[in-house]
């Protein structure tokens, strides 16, 4: 048999997927499993978006588009960033992609040479490391504490930047912690990276799911940041596989050239349907759903604390709570397995998100209804007793 490429050995596994398989198998056996595991909203695309999809399909709008995406959608995304996140944006800088994954792949291929090192926080979303690896780069996880809100900061850049370091990949709000980077801290971090001639890739796929005052994009601090975003989380279109990348003007031709070969284009019908996401009536639906997520967070946070699952940093975005389980266990893998099989509650062990806090941390996702969250808390209470 032909040998596999060495990079296949370097790709990080995603244990949440294995947990999902186990939960699905138990469901198939008739067990009622409450999932606080996979980060997929229980909401789906609003009816208006589905209706637009159907019209586009009937009109035969399923042919290839430009590699950068259809112009009306790029314009709508640019206006969305200006109106909601305070970032004036030329639509020509928006590249529509096959999900945030497609955007990260293009960014990594455009910026990373073999052997380049990219700094990331530990904990962070594991799949992001694999895009760096796919480009020949070396992801380097930097342990980040609760004091840092589990995020990279300027001090970490000064301490860990080395001869091979090329840039940073960060997220705000973050998966798995739901924490954001404070504006002044982000500005200081960007300044340290810029002094060293590096790049910043900012994952903003949860920016719409922010529970503070007014969210602002990192673009308002530095116009040369590469932004990754998606229709999966805030817009609840996970399987539609649609996202976008915002690139500095000098990068756009290279990104478009890569996109033409690596993807041809993002799914055409999904692009046409997504324009409807930005209509005022539909945006009101998304805002009401955001408030539903906030209500769930506000319920689950004190309940986990009451159960002895301590939350070192309260999340202010996304739909995750990153909890410390040391009062009950020092082995998050075993704790997750028992919680699933004995209590019927699925939650992700910390090993998915980096080694620094892996043994004693768990990610709980509140992407299910309040009634199911209440039932999950009751089951966990019985289990822990």
From TrEMBL:
Report any one BP term from Gene Ontology: amino acid metabolic process
List the cofactors.
pyridoxal 5'-phosphate
UniProt-listed Pfam families: Aminotran_1_2
Question: Keywords, A to Z?
Answer: Aminotransferase, Pyridoxal phosphate, Transferase
Q: Select a single GO molecular function from the record's annotations and give it.
A: pyridoxal phosphate binding
| Gene3D superfamilies per the UniProt record, alphabetical | Type I PLP-dependent aspartate aminotransferase-like (Major domain)
Using the record's annotation, list all stretches that form the Aminotransferase class I/classII large domain.
32-379
| Family membership | Belongs to the class-I pyridoxal-phosphate-dependent aminotransferase family.
Protein's name in the database: Aspartate/methionine/tyrosine aminotransferase
């Amino acid at each position: 048999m032909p040998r596999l490429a060495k990079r296949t050995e370097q790709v990080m596994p995603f244990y949440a997927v294995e947990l999902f398989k186990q939960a699905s198998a138990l469901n198939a056996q008739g067990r009622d499993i409450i999932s606080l595991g996979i980060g997929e909203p229980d909401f789906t695309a609003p009816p208006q978006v589905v209706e637009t999809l159907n019209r586009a399909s009937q009109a035969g709008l399923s042919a290839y588009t430009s590699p950068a995406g259809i112009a009306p959608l790029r314009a709508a995304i640019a206006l969305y960033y200006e109106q909601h996140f305070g970032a004036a944006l030329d639509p020509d800088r928006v590249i529509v992609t096959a999900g945030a994954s497609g955007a990260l792949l293009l960014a990594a291929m455009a910026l990373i040479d073999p052997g380049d090192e990219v700094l990331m926080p530990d904990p962070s979303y594991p799949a992001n490391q694999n895009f760096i690896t796919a480009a020949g780069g070396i992801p380097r996880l930097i342990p980040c504490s609760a004091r840092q809100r589990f995020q990279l900061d300027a001090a970490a850049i000064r301490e860990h930047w080395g001869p091979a370091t090329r840039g940073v990949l960060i997220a705000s709000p973050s998966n798995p912690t739901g924490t954001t980077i404070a504006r002044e801290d982000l500005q200081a971090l960007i300044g340290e990276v810029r002094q060293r001639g590096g790049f910043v890739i900012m994952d903003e796929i949860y920016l719409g799911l922010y529970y503070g005052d007014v969210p602002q994009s990192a673009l308002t601090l530095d116009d040369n940041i590469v932004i990754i975003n998606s229709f999966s989380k805030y817009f609840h279109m996970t399987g539609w596989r649609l996202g976008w990348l915002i690139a500095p003007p000098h990068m756009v031709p290279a990104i478009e050239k890569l996109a033409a070969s690596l993807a041809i284009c993002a799914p055409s019908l999904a692009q046409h349907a997504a324009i409807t996401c930005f209509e005022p009536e539909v945006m009101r639906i998304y805002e009401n759903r955001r408030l539903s997520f906030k209500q769930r967070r506000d319920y689950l946070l004190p309940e986990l604390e009451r159960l002895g699952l301590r939350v070192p940093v309260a999340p202010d975005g996304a739909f995750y709570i990153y909890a410390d389980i040391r009062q009950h266990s020092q082995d998050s893998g075993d704790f997750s397995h028992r919680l699933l099989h004995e209590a019927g509650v699925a939650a992700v062990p910390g090993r998915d998100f980096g080694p620094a806090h892996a043994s004693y941390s768990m990610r709980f996702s509140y992407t299910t209804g309040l009634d199911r969250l209440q039932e999950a808390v009751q089951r966990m209470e019985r289990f822990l007793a």
